[in-house]
Amino acid sequence: MYFCTYFVLPLYSYNECTVIKIKKRQKYFEMAKELKELTSRSESYSQWYQDLVIKADLAENSAVRGCMVIKPYGYAIWEKMQRYLDDMFKETGHVNAYFPLFIPKSFLSKEADHVEGFAKECAVVTHYRLKNNPDGSGVVVDPAAKLEEELIVRPTSETIIWNTYRNWIQSHRDLPILCNQWANVVRWEMRTRLFLRTAEFLWQEGHTAHATEAEAVEEARKMLEVYANFAEQYMAVPVVKGVKSASERFAGAIDTYTIEALMQDGKALQSGTSHFLGQNFAKAFDVTFTDKNGSQEYVWATSWGVSTRLMGALIMTHSDDNGLVLPPKLAPFQVVIVPIFKGEEQLNAINEKVAEITAKLKALGISVKYDNSDNKKPGWKFAEYELKGVPVRMAMGARDMQNNTVEVARRDTLTKETVSLDNIDQYIKNLLDEIQANIFKKAADYRTNNTRTVETYDEFKEEIEKGGFILAHWDGTPETEELIKTETKATIRCIPLEGDKTPGVCMVTGKPSAQRVLFARAY
RNA sequence: CGAGGUGUAGCGCAGCCCGGUUAGCGCAUCUGUUUUGGGAACAGAGGGUCCCAGGUUCGAAUCCUGGUACCUCGACCA
């Protein structure tokens, strides 16, 4: 009941004739769905997600519990995310570095909240050698090779980095330090789901050191903006920027800023976080600097990260019962061209024509895949590339060769039309921009339609069952937050930075509330 | 970590309850021919430690015990 069936037609092609064609096409799509064996969203949203990740060839489960294999098509999307994000980090003055996978166990416990937050999900290295099993059945851990200090596999790198920063920082002239690293981390999760929560995942973690509190807060906020811009402009995923409540805060942070996205099943997904760490880690690792007046001060810190979980956000925001829908800016290839031919002679002629078109498209920076394999029929290819979310499909047959046209189909609206080859490159470029804008608008409309304001707790209990974001007044206490969570399974996703800031009274206790906060059930 | 379900060819499944020739079907693969504007047709071929380890039995995919992996729902989780 939370799903909207999007079948938005572009205005320029909307006429009665199109309607008939589309009805016919819907029938084909239903056939295609059965063959794809993709569970529909209304039947089971989580099964749909699972099916889609596997069938669109994004990732699969591995031999190691909770760890996934990211397949080439899925990794290509991640690589694009990395590239754009990395450019944005560089533009904001950051540099990349790399810190170790292993962290001495004692480091983790230096910051009290931090160890409390992560201790329960750490993988621990206790030995450094194997030996042949005396009974001949393979290898066993060599008990003689026990590590003096056990190492943990990083669940995040604050401790090893701040231990290192101590040596890098003496004076205010050494600040700020603006480092980022692209890395893998391990958090031993009990229940995993591809991309959304896995024991090992890929991410970037920025770690910055500043001379003043104001500068560090500004940094944390700045990176939140970077994340929000990336989510909206590249992923086409609308997000709410906000601050986490105390109980949802990063272990060791003073403030955690977050971007929250709304998935099609009405659940929220935390998609990126940026932390103002105050002087907590500087104090834990004794990182001080001499300021301009010659006095010793503790360094101010931030950290911020986004992970392969963004892949989950991307999939669950746009995709439909026919498969993946990718924003043109992140699609591994933006256009696929399928030839329709009888005999080798026709194919050769089409190959030549397509080479011309491809060259023109590539000159405009558009990525193209030409699939002229002859072991699959065109219809098979159509369905396959729909499943994989390719934004634009072009089909070129004998008829088009004669008429100097090509059939262009767009994945977001599932509409197609025949267009002239004159200026096809510019036409496709514009179309890709339009698709990028359209899927963002669709997602933004969905969020708007599923964000509701409530006044009373009874109303809240009723509305939360329907899914979506709920804006309500809260008295700011962890006790009230906990009560709401226990009774409704909803959590405070964030205290929004933008929007209505009118004070009111808490829906549960009637105590004063500074502003409405955003509630949802979450992944 | 708890409850339930599943594991048989690359993929999807039947067979198991009620043990008995050579373990079967669809898709995919290979060969050939015809096809190609929304998942092509015919003919032929190849492909299996029936999740693993024990046990019961003349005989186990099938029954029993233990293990393991995945899925669903909980608990947990920034």
Radius of gyration: 26 Å
Q: Please mark out the parts with pLDDT under 50 across 5 or more consecutive residues, or reply none.
A: 1-34
Q: In the CATH hierarchy, what is the architecture of the largest domain at level 2?
A: 2-Layer Sandwich
Overall 3D form: globular
Portion in beta strands: 25-35%
Major beta-sheet overview: 11 strands, mixed
**Class by helix and strand content?**
alpha+beta
How is the CATH topology of the largest domain named?
BirA Bifunctional Protein, domain 2
> What would the average pLDDT be, to the nearest integer?
90
In total, the number of domains comes to: 3
* Number of strand elements: 27
Task: Output the CATH class name of the largest domain.
Answer: Alpha Beta
| CATH homology superfamily name of the largest domain | Bira Bifunctional Protein, Domain 2
Count of helical segments? 15
Strand order of the largest sheet: 3-9-10-16-13-12-11-24-27-23-22
Helix content: 25-40%
Distance between the termini: 19 Å
